[in-house]
Amino acid sequence: MAKFDNEAAAAECLRVLNAFFTKYPNPQLQAWAMGSFQKLLKRGVQLTGSPAGWMAGLVHAISNFGKQPCGVEGLLNAEFTEAFGGVSMSTVRSRSATIRQVLEL
User: Fold this and answer.
1) Residue 82 has pLDDT above 60, yes or no
2) CATH number, domain at 33?
């Protein structure tokens, strides 16, 4: 069985995250997302599964910092999930919960 390549997954996650912020520019949220992503990597999170799911979960988690998770301001859930290649909201919420726990948000 091949060893999981977290570096390759991280590179794809960054590509997905940059594509999201190209479509929906928000410099403040982007800076926070990039910093939070680096923290996830430093804490050893294995990015198994869909990179789009991880990055949608990350944006969702930080967008809802300090409040009950309800979505990303200014975007309908359908627009948000479409921006990440059609990842399901179930995946977004699951990854968001994991990220909030790991980053103690």
Assistant:
1) yes
2) 1.10.472
Neighbours of 65 (CB within 10 A): 12
Kindly tell me the burial class for residue 41, based on how many C-beta atoms sit within 10 Å of its own C-beta (0-12, 13-18, 19 or more).
Answer: middle
For 19-66, write each residue's pLDDT tens digit. Answer: 999 999 999 999 999 999 999 999 999 999 999 999 999 999 998 876
How many domains are contained in the chain?
Answer: 1
Report the alpha-carbon distance of residue 4 to residue 27 in Å, rounded. Answer: 32
For residue 7, is it within any domain?
A: no
Domain with 83, as residue range(s), is 21-103
Count of C-beta atoms within a 10 Å radius of residue 33: 21
| Residue 8 belongs to a domain | no
Burial of 88 (0-12, 13-18, 19+ CB in 10 A): middle
